[in-house]
Write a structure and sequence with these properties.
Length: 59
């Protein structure tokens, strides 16, 4: 799984956890959207924690 930051139509940055499956990137979890750098950094930290927790559950 990877963390992806994409621009939205409202000029915000969306933070998503994605995985590559069957030749496509699939959104596993939408973490949230930010309008400034501080919010973006906080969402990336949340996404990293979410992926760590998810990997622990899968093992």
């Amino acid at each position: 799984m990877k963390i992806r930051v994409v621009n939205t139509a409202s000029k915000a940055n969306a933070v998503q956890v994605v995985r590559y499956q069957n030749g496509k990137w699939m959104i596993v979890q939408h973490i949230g959207s930010s309008h400034n750098d501080a919010e973006l950094e906080a969402l990336i930290v949340v996404a990293e924690e979410w992926t760590k927790d998810c990997k622990k559950q899968l093992s």
